[in-house]
């Protein structure tokens, strides 16, 4: 532990914030301790009333009786004051001098109560050290005091202790003995108090440092996304210009070699535009504060997506959708969820051989729904499986037909699914294929669908 606060306070930069932080904690401690102390004295008073004969015969009963009444009268003042200050603190979120003074006086009050009980009630200074020690230990552990407050408290305690020694007419030898013991106890009190101050101060500084680092990371992330968005947006213009030139060249009669070059230019532009779209999507999704969704019937949506893919693939890869016949509803952002399913099917097709099958399955459970996209192609190597959803990861691979990967697609997919309060996982065996599983939470419409579900579920396939 860093012990630099044993003999000084926090740096000026954090001092006011930390004071506000521990002032509230001190007020809570005052309220709790005063309540316990009051209840304890009320119980003692009840015992006085319940057993008047036996207790009144105890040694020094008048002094005990007097001290008990003093404690019962004074302690509620601290209890009421601490409650009022706590209410005030919750409104202002700031510590005041009055709050600090209340905590200081209460700490002194508890210690003096221990002295008073022993000195006055027992008339024996040597017995005072037990309650004195207990009070010092409690105060040093429960409350947080600044360096100067600790020193002032030590001085005040010593003044009271010496005054009580003189008041009880302690012999010089006993007085010297008690002062020596008191000095040892006060030294222990000081180091214990500063230890807990240092411990809590270091903890507070660590929390502040973490918050500042998080703020810096958030700002850096926002700046990165802004730059990413601007760069990606500005790249569209030159790519569009190159694409326009290629299209204009196609208007003229060209030889086969030139046509191949034009096709290469157009394919490169399309690929670059796809990468830019991924970059913009990644930056845009992170900056969205409000994620708009609407209740959507997923059977219809997934059927449409799969039908489009079947038209695109012709006889290359067979994309099949299966689901329960009942309506299945979910709160989704239609555009972004469409992108998720498109991306997963695209990946499945990319690593499937011609005439292979890709299954898209929808199922409904009591706690939500599940969408699975399964292929029977190459599968994902075990060493890159943990990185599959990381942005710009090395998990990106070239497809069976030469399709390139930006390393952003699955990262965007997970980002979108998490914004839907869902989750996505993957299982894969190399050479046997992969299964991506999306889980979404239940909605009110889904629960209604469960109530309307027929006794036997039928299956439909596209």
TrEMBL record:
The Histidine kinase domain is annotated at: 230-444
Gene3D superfamilies, per the entry: 1.10.287.130, Histidine kinase-like ATPase, C-terminal domain (3.30.565.10)
Query: What's the EC number here?
Result: 2.7.13.3
Which domain of life, per UniProt? Bacteria
What reaction does this catalyse?
Answer: ATP + protein L-histidine = ADP + protein N-phospho-L-histidine
Q: Which GO terms describe its molecular function?
A: phosphorelay sensor kinase activity
Keywords, ordered alphabetically: Kinase, Membrane, Phosphoprotein, Transferase, Transmembrane, Transmembrane helix, Two-component regulatory system
Q: What is the enzyme's main class? A: transferase
Q: Where are the transmembrane segments?
A: 21-48, 68-87, 99-121, 127-145, 152-170, 176-197
- Family matches, as SMART domains: HATPase_c (SM00387), HisKA (SM00388)
Q: Which InterPro entries match?
A: HATPase_C_sf, HATPase_dom, His_kinase_dom, HisK_dim/P_dom, HisK_dim/P_sf, Sensor_HK_Regulatory, Sig_transdc_His_kin-like_C
Q: Fetch the PANTHER family from UniProt.
A: HISTIDINE KINASE 1, TWO-COMPONENT HISTIDINE KINASE
Task: Return the protein name.
Answer: histidine kinase
């Amino acid at each position: 532990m860093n012990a630099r606060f044993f003999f000084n306070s926090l740096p000026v930069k954090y001092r006011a914030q930390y004071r506000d932080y521990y002032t509230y904690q001190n007020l809570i401690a005052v309220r709790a301790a005063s309540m316990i102390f009051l209840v304890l004295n009320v119980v003692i008073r009840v015992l006085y009333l319940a057993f008047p004969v036996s207790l009144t015969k105890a040694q020094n009963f008048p002094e005990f009786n007097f001290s008990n009444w003093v404690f019962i009268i004074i302690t509620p003042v601290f209890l009421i004051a601490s409650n009022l200050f706590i209410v005030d603190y919750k409104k202002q979120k700031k510590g005041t001098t009055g709050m600090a003074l209340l905590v200081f006086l209460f700490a002194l009050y508890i210690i003096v109560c221990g002295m008073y009980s022993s000195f006055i009630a027992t008339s024996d200074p040597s017995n005072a050290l037990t309650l004195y020690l207990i009070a010092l230990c409690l105060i040093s552990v429960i409350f947080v005091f600044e360096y100067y407050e600790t020193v002032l408290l030590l001085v005040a305690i010593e003044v009271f202790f010496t005054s009580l020694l003189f008041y009880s007419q302690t012999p010089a030898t006993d007085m010297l003995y008690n002062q020596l013991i008191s000095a040892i106890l006060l030294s222990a009190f000081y180091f214990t108090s500063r230890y807990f101050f240092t411990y809590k101060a270091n903890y507070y500084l660590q929390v502040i440092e973490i918050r500042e680092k998080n703020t810096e990371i958030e700002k850096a992330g926002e700046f990165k996304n802004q730059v990413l968005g601007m760069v990606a947006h500005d790249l569209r213009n030159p790519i569009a210009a190159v694409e326009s030139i290629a299209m204009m060249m196609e208007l003229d009669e060209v030889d086969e070699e030139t046509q191949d070059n034009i096709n290469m230019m157009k394919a490169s532009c399309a690929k670059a535009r796809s990468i830019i779209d991924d970059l913009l999507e990644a930056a845009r999704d992170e900056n969205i504060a409000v994620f708009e969704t609407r209740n959507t019937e997923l059977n219809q949506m997934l059927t449409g997506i799969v039908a489009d893919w079947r038209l695109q693939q012709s006889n290359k890869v067979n994309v099949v959708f299966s689901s329960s016949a009942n309506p299945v509803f979910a709160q989704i952002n239609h555009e972004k969820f469409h992108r998720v399913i498109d991306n997963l099917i695209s990946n499945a097709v990319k690593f499937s051989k011609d005439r292979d099958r890709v299954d898209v399955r929808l199922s409904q459970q009591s706690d939500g729904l599940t969408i699975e996209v399964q292929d029977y192609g190459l599968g994902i190597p075990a060493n890159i499986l943990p990185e599959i959803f990381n942005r710009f990861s090395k998990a990106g691979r070239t497809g069976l037909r030469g399709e390139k990967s930006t390393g952003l697609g699955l990262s965007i997919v997970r980002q979108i699914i998490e914004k839907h309060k869902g989750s996505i996982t993957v299982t894969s065996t190399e050479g046997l294929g992969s299964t991506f599983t999306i889980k979404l939470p239940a909605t009110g419409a889904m629960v209604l669908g469960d109530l309307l579900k027929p006794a036997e579920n039928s299956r439909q396939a596209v």
